[in-house]
């Protein structure tokens, strides 16, 4: 039975799982978005979000703790530089998982995991996403009155 066991082992031994999550976290920090299976994306979210929280406090100790997980100096520089600046005011929830369907080969559920603040489409600050104003439709009697008024003013 699996009572109280919340950690997904992903069908791998501990060393393989840690190495895979490290590599996926490095790719996510470098590219800001990666495609993977839903199970791996959920495991990666649990792995990388505490590291991003640590990166908000740029100290030598934080850098060493995060380096012990990532083992990549370029990823550390990127995480403590651009990523930490973007997420400075966010209290949590740094990643977003978007399901993209099933893989053709084995039917596994696929997903795209991305850093939330680096997607301009979904962000409320983005210039591409604009809301249209909602207006109430005129009643038939009001519409008829408006059309007669416009005809009278045209004459």
From TrEMBL:
A Pfam family annotated for this UniProt entry: Ribosomal_L17
Alphabetical keyword list: Ribonucleoprotein, Ribosomal protein
Complexes and interactors: Part of the 50S ribosomal subunit. Contacts protein L32.
Record PANTHER family: LARGE RIBOSOMAL SUBUNIT PROTEIN BL17M, RIBOSOMAL PROTEIN L17
Family: Belongs to the bacterial ribosomal protein bL17 family.
HAMAP family linked: Ribosomal_bL17
Protein name per the record: Large ribosomal subunit protein bL17
Gene source species: Algivirga pacifica
């Amino acid at each position: 039975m699996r009572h109280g066991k919340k950690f997904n082992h992903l069908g791998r031994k501990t060393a393989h799982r840690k190495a895979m999550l490290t590599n996926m976290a490095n790719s996510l920090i470098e590219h800001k978005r990666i495609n993977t299976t839903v199970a791996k994306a959920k495991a990666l979210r649990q792995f990388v979000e505490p590291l991003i929280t640590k990166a908000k406090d740029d100290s030598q100790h934080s850098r060493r703790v995060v380096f012990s997980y990532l083992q990549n100096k370029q990823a550390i520089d990127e995480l403590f530089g651009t990523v930490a600046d973007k997420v400075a005011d966010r209290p949590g929830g740094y990643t977003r998982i978007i399901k993209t369907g099933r893989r053709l080969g084995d039917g596994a559920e696929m997903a795209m995991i991305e850093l939330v603040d680096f997607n301009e489409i979904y962000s409320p600050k983005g210039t591409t996403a604009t809301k249209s104003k909602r207006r109430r439709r005129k009643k038939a009697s009001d519409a008829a009155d408006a059309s007669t008024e416009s005809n009278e003013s045209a004459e």
